[in-house]
Amino acid sequence: MTARRRHLRAVPTPPEQPVAPVQLLNWRHCSHFGPPAPCVLCGTTTPLRSHAKEPVHKVCAELWNAAHPGEARFVSDPPTDSGTTDHA
Predict the structure, then answer these.
(1) pLDDT tens, residue by residue, 37-52
(2) Cα separation, 74 vs 65, whole angstroms
(3) CA-to-CA distance for 22 and 58, rounded, in angstroms?
(4) Quick one: which of 80, 56, 63 has its CA closest to 23?
(5) CA 26 – CA 78 distance, rounded (Å)
(6) I want to staple 54 with a disulfide (CB 3.0 to 4.6 A). Which of 35, 50, 77, 88 is the partner?
């Protein structure tokens, strides 16, 4: 009889959490989408665009905002006054 050994995978360490709480961005408008391009922060491709038309993932932008409080590189869309909710 042969003994089978299980190969244990190394558990990845979670990324370091930002000091400030993360403020979620609202990028629902169609102007935040374009052809896939490398994210300016992580380098993987994304169809999302910031207000300055930079290709960036929404999560990358939110983490950048939390790490750089007081800087307005990535901003959220202003709320609409339509009174309707836009959710799935």
Answers:
(1) 999 999 999 999 999 9
(2) 7
(3) 12
(4) 63
(5) 8
(6) 50
CB-hemisphere CA count at 13 Å for 13? 3
Tokens of 49: 């665009």
Q: Which two tokens stand for residue 48?
A: 């999302």
* Residue 85: partners with Cβ closer than 8 Å, 6 or more residues away: none
Asked if pLDDT for residue 17 goes beyond 80, the answer is: no
Tell me the residue length of the chain: 88
What residues pair up with 48 in beta bridges, in sequence order?
A: 33
Q: Give the list of residues 6+ apart from residue 30 with CB closer than 8 angstroms, or none.
A: none
Name residues whose C-beta falls within 8 Å of residue 14's C-beta, 6 or more positions apart in sequence.
none
CB 77 within 8 A of CB 58: no
Tell me the C-alpha distance between 54 and 31, whole Å. Answer: 11
> Is the confidence at residue 25, as pLDDT, over 70?
yes
